[in-house]
Amino acid sequence: MVDGTNVVRELTVDLGERSYPIYIGEGLLQETSAYLEQHGVSKKSSLMIISDDNTAPLYLDTLVSSLTNAGYTVASAVVPAGEASKSLSMFENLITKALEAGLDRKSTIIALGGGVVGDLAGYVAAAYMRGIRFVQIPTTILAHDSSVGGKVAVNHPHAKNIIGAFHQPAFVLFDLKTLQSLPLRQVQCGLAEVIKHGLIWDESFVDWCDENMDKLLALDPEALGYALYKGCSVKAAVVSVDEREGGLRAILNLGHTIGHALEAVAGYGELTHGEAIAIGMIGSALVGVKLGAPQSVYEVTKRVFGKSGLPTRLPAHFDTDAIMSAMMHDKKFTEGSIVYVVPTAIGRVEVRSDVAASLVRETVEQLKQEADWQ
Amino acid sequence: MVDGTNVVRELTVDLGERSYPIYIGEGLLQETSAYLEQHGVSKKSSLMIISDDNTAPLYLDTLVSSLTNAGYTVASAVVPAGEASKSLSMFENLITKALEAGLDRKSTIIALGGGVVGDLAGYVAAAYMRGIRFVQIPTTILAHDSSVGGKVAVNHPHAKNIIGAFHQPAFVLFDLKTLQSLPLRQVQCGLAEVIKHGLIWDESFVDWCDENMDKLLALDPEALGYALYKGCSVKAAVVSVDEREGGLRAILNLGHTIGHALEAVAGYGELTHGEAIAIGMIGSALVGVKLGAPQSVYEVTKRVFGKSGLPTRLPAHFDTDAIMSAMMHDKKFTEGSIVYVVPTAIGRVEVRSDVAASLVRETVEQLKQEADWQ
Ligand SMILES: NC(=O)c1ccc[n+]([C@@H]2O[C@H](COP(=O)([O-])OP(=O)(O)OC[C@H]3O[C@@H](n4cnc5c(N)ncnc54)[C@H](O)[C@@H]3O)[C@@H](O)[C@H]2O)c1
Ligand SMILES: NC(=O)c1ccc[n+]([C@@H]2O[C@H](COP(=O)([O-])OP(=O)(O)OC[C@H]3O[C@@H](n4cnc5c(N)ncnc54)[C@H](O)[C@@H]3O)[C@@H](O)[C@H]2O)c1
Ligand SMILES: [Zn+2]
Ligand SMILES: [Zn+2]
Q1: Of A94, A342, B113, B317, which one has the greatest count of Cβ atoms within 10 A?
Q2: Cα–Cα dist A200/A206, whole Å
Q3: Within this chain, do residues A239 and A142 fall inside the same structural domain, yes or no?
Q4: Which residue ranges does the record assign to the 3-dehydroquinate synthase N-terminal domain (chains A, B) (predicted)?
């Protein structure tokens, strides 16, 4: 689809009757109403936009104008930025707002923001009247991940993402212009998941990332559009086969077994999710090599994360016992067996349940010895 | 299926890959573990029973014994009886309990109680880790209705059932023995929905209710088993065609447009749901006759509710304006048009959106003038 002089990339997340498109292009935000109309969103029922207080000041007005100019009735709710907003009490506040705004069964909730807003707004949409329409306008690179697959959730004080649903959006609109305001650390964090999608599925895309990392870090729209398109495509391919996490979807956890444990033991704000899984993916590559993958799996993995500026080494002060015990509590343990995603080549992984804890422990120790990438 | 000397009635709620059976018979509670085994519920993951403080003292021990004797690990949570437990804060407590009990993705939540426990426990099961297995053991007659169709929810202070999901159980187990302890008012309340299922779908079943009302009120197991079987069958037939409330499912709202409005304006505890919809169904019959249905629709409707001891007249102190305005706020209004279910014959209804508010107002007034049934 070509829109003026800008290319709009489009891909479909193929989930039978729940299939939906993702549009990626520059300046799409101001055209949101046209996309809603194209998707048959009626003007008789109110819409509600949910955003956070970093994103709203930058982009909410543009979105609201697009909608009201087209004749939609719009309510907005702005939550504090940050993971703490993915709570049941924020969820309740938003349900109250939805009731006050008169949302009915034909209403649509629009998420404008990163993964936090997407997960939170998506769960509100999943629960309100047992499920109303949902549209995602992700404004972070990381949200390319959360916008595919329909996983929505809030956190419980004792466990992340434990209260949620599978609720697929009607469509996803990625406006590359909104990504220009992302702080570098958020850019890198999102790139970690982009690279992950290459590592599990597509060697040539890993090579492309390796060669184009400078452009990605500079938020070059053409490079970014392509990377988001590829990242979403891989995730879409995986979830199309396994919508409800029966099997294949486990490969998306590459680097996350160690990564989640690092997040659990790290001090507040010490590691972003992307940083934690970058270290986790280096760890997985080490495990892979120990189990027979070629040494180049480790080398390429380390190089691409190194170029992105993500950490490739675990800071020495992290306690290995604490990391191992956090791993044991992770929800990926089903009936006592651990699911571990091991690379066998660049672009190929296998899910194994026989990886010894001792091997993982050894790897965690080794991650502290890693030389910095330069 | 025959079990010892007792007949176990079985029917299937046909929802494709989400299809599930309902078992109805005497003494099934103590055999719950056998049903779980038959449905492949693993003993490696913990179960959690959710019940209320009326039902738990009567039946929880029997259920727990059945499960632990068979080798299941079981946690229990007991909530205060009553609609107030269908709240987001009770939901949060139960999620915490589930986490503490170590429930994982392969765990099962069992609802032991009436519709309140079923809706609440079902929503916990729908949300926990984005959905785990759910089994219903309904202990009220009314819960024959709530156990078919997968609608689960909690209430918001401003709206009933507004926070929820569609989450189908793995199976439903109706032990007729547990119904023997039901107070008469609860029996009548449940029969209102049983009769409703006849009125919308099956004239001969309405005749059967008319003839067997004494047995039903006396909780005769054979009559009760048949009535629950028929009631569930009608509801199952409707939801099989329309799982997510796109169309046909609206006929299940017979009597509920007026009924919900009466509940909204009634003083606390003045009307049960069954009493409110019984009056509502008399009202719908009156509307039906005004719109051309034979007078007998009204007569039969009134007789069968009269025999059951449910009210057939609206107490005079109810304010018609308040009722009409409550009706306007009901969530069945979609894009401004009202959905009203009108009988055209006994066992047949149509969903109309052209019923004038003035006709409904006139009917509400008329309901206050009704002669008592004797
Ligand atoms: N549902 C899924 O499948 C899935 C997958 C991955 C991650 N997630 C969830 O996503 C969340 C993380 O997502 P995230 O990294 O996008 O976090 P986020 O939403 O918190 O965004 C990161 C930060 O960037 C700010 N921000 C967002 N857009 C911006 C913009 N365009 N310009 C400037 N600042 C902007 C935000 O306000 C926030 O401070 C986590 O809660 C995680 O659980 C969900
Ligand atoms: N999900 C659905 O499709 C659906 C359909 C209809 C109703 N509902 C919901 O069901 C609820 C009403 O169901 P209900 O009438 O069963 O209410 P309930 O669960 O409150 O039970 C009624 C009363 O009977 C008590 N009780 C339950 N079993 C008993 C037994 N065997 N012996 C003695 N006492 C017993 C309960 O403790 C309670 O006090 C409402 O919240 C309604 O919204 C849901
Ligand atoms: Zn991740
Ligand atoms: Zn009802």
Answers
A1: B113
A2: 10
A3: no
A4: 78-188
Q: Which of the following is catalytic: A9, A151, A197, A307?
A: A151
pTM comes to 0.94
Residue-wise pLDDT for A11-54, tens only, equals 999 988 899 999 999 999 999 999 999 999 999 999 999 999 99
pLDDT on residue A340: 87
Residue B306 structure tokens: 């009269």
Q: Do residues A144 and A163 share a domain?
A: yes
Backbone angles phi, psi at A160, to 5 degrees: -75, 145
Closest Cα of chain B to A104: distance in Å? 7
Q: Is the domain of B147 the same as that of B232?
A: no
Which token pair is A165?
Answer: 């649903």
Interface confidence, given as ipTM, is 0.91
Question: Tell me, what amino acid is at A23?
Answer: Y
Residue A267 neighbours by CB distance under 10 Å: 7
Residues B239 and B164 in one domain: no
A162 & A235 share domain: no
- Please count the other Cβ atoms lying within 10 Å of the Cβ belonging to residue A335: 12
Q: What average pLDDT is seen over chain B?
A: 93
Q: What angle do CA A125, A127, A129 make, to 5 degrees?
A: 90
CA B141/CA B121 separation, integer angstroms = 18
Those residues with Cβ within 8 angstroms of residue A365's Cβ, 6 or more apart along the chain or in another chain: A320
Q: How many domains does chain B have?
A: 2
Chain B residues touching residue A156 (CB < 8 angstroms): 92, 95-96, 99
Of the listed ligands, the closest to the CA of A116 is 1
Q: How far is CA A96 from CA A78, B42, B90, B275, in A?
A: 13, 39, 17, 29
CA B136 – ligand 1 centroid, Å: 38
Contact B81, B142 (CB under 8 A): no
Judge if B192 and B93 occupy the same domain: no
Looking at A154, A180, A206, the residue that finishes a domain is A180
Q: What is the CATH number of the domain that holds A139?
A: 3.40.50.1970
B160 is in an annotated binding site: yes
A99, A106, A244 member nearest B162 (Cβ): A99
**Residue at a domain's end among A180, A198, A227:** A180
Q: Which of B13, B54, B166, B263, when mutated, tests ligand 2's pocket best, judged by the most ligand atoms within 8 Å of its CB? A: B54
Residue A152, C-beta contacts closer than 8 angstroms, at least 6 positions apart: A118, A119, A120, A121, A122, A123, A125, A126, A164, A165, A166, A167
Domain at A328, CATH number: 1.20.1090.10
Q: State whether A192 and A99 are in the same domain.
A: no
> SS3 of A51, please?
strand
Task: Give the ligand 2 atom nearest the CA of B141.
Answer: 16
- Per-residue pLDDT, A374: 66
Q: Mind listing the pLDDT tens digit for each residue in A234-288?
A: 999 998 887 776 678 889 999 999 999 999 899 777 999 999 999 999 999 999 9
User: Rounded to whole angstroms, how far apart are CA atoms B138 and B111?
Assistant: 7
C-alpha distances out from residue A42 to A47, A122, A133, B177, Å: 10, 19, 11, 50
Does one domain contain both B219 and B350? yes
Which tokens go with B234?
């009608």
CA dist., res. B310 & res. B276, Å (int): 9
The domain of A359 spans: 184-373
Q: DSSP code of A332?
A: T
